[in-house]
Amino acid sequence: MMKERYTVLVLGGGPDREREVSLKSAAGVAAALREAGHETIERDILPKDLSALDETCDVIFPVLHGAWGEGGPLQKKLEADGRPFVGWGSAAATRAMNKAETKEVARQLGIDTPPAWVVRPGERPEFELPVVVKPIDDGSSMGVTICEDETTVSIALEQLLTERGEALIEQYIEGRELTVGVLDDVTLPVIEIVPKAEFYDYEAKYDRDDTDYRFDIDIDPELMINIQTHALALHMKLRGRHLSRVDFILDDKKHAWLLEINTLPGFTSHSLLPQAALQSGLTMNALCDRLVNLALRDANRR
Fold this sequence. Notes:
The chain is an alpha+beta fold. The chain contains 10 helices and 13 strands.
């Protein structure tokens, strides 16, 4: 029998560009777990400072966004640590963080995703404008540029190739933005994201209060089920664990295109997974408590 009250080490911060959001998410999780009755320890963690893992606890709840914090490297450290932790394993997280690899998995599953090209220095594939230039392994819309002309493409590519050595060019598809949360291998209600800004960028996700999140969506029920089915299929194929969020764009012909999967969605006041969970009857406290128990459940199965 598992006890109901645990000591949970909540990890936030990290070295990635989403550091500030990671700290906010971690604070939100820690507060929710305290209200749920758990003892919580909040710590920042960095590649060169893993002292947070010296804390004594029953389970670890990492709440970091970005390549190091959610894309595998931190998960490798947590696996070596040996204690139960919330979220994906390192191999699955590494694979899912790579947008090009995720798109290939989606194609294998018969899930449509916009055409895309991996670009490295000296390369320039042929494509039709407009396109989206984005990092291969980043989140929170960091480094994403919608390009309607060749000059903008060149500038965006130069910056990403200089910083990272590779980039992704993806065919731009105009449409409605939809997202599907997955919790313990079950899909949550679909959310339509309606930003006041032209693009649902970092500011719209975390700073602005005028983005509209809708559950009452004018979509054929069969299409809604199809989107949820695809989200869960991708989550399962990538060996997702505990939670994820899968993003789609719905074009004017009512055709849904997969954009990406998020292995560790946000837990801020603006975040989508907690909103979807609440729509299903799970408060933030209950959601975080559920995730802690999922981590302990899976650890006991090993």
